Amino acid sequence: MRKNPIVLNIKIIATTRFFNIEEMDIEFSNGSKRVYERLKPSGNDAVLVIPMLDIETVLMIYEYSGGTDRYELALTKGKIDDGETPIEAANRELIEEIGYGANKLTFIKEMTIAPGYQSSITYIVLAQDLYKARAEGDEPEPLEVAAFKMADLENLVYNEDLTEARSIAALYMARDVINNQ
Prior knowledge:
Layout (H helix, E strand, L loop, with lengths): L5 E10 L3 E9 L5 E9 L4 E6 L5 E9 L4 E5 L1 E4 L6 H13 L1 E13 L8 E12 L11 E6 L3 H4 L8 H15 L2
Parallel strand pairs: 4-9
Antiparallel strand pairs: 1-2, 2-3, 4-7, 5-6, 5-10, 8-9
C-alpha cells in the first residue's frame, strides 16, 4: 500500500512573475530522503475548454506560445480568477478568446501537466450550445479562431501546429463524452 512521504520542509528558492520555484525536503516511508524542486504557480489553477459550435465542429485558436516561439493551435484556456469556479472561468475564457459563451458547460476531468515537478491543475470543460458574446481579454493581439470537424480528429491531432498534450487529450475525451450523450 502506498503511503505518502513526509514533507519535512518547503522553501522558495526563486520567484518569477508566473512561478515560484520551491525546494522540498522529503522523507519516504522506508527512511530514504530526497530533495525535490517544483514549479508552483503564483496564482490559481487553469481551465481548458472544448467549444463545440455544433455536434460536429470544434473551435480552436492559433495563439503565440513563448515556450515554442511560434503560433500553436490549441483549445481555449486560461487562469481561474479569484472567486471563480472552473465552470465560470471556462465561460469567461470562451467569451474573451473566441467570441462565444456557452449555455451548457460540462466538467470532464482534472489534468496535470508535469506532476513530477509542476503543481498546477487544469480543469477540462466541454462547452456546448454556444451563443455569440464578446469581452476584452488579456491577449496581446486578436486570436485566430479555426473550426475543425471532430469526425477528422485522427488527422487533426497530427496537425504540425497542434502539439499541446492537454488539447489533444481533451479532444479525445470530448469526443467520447459527445458520443455518449
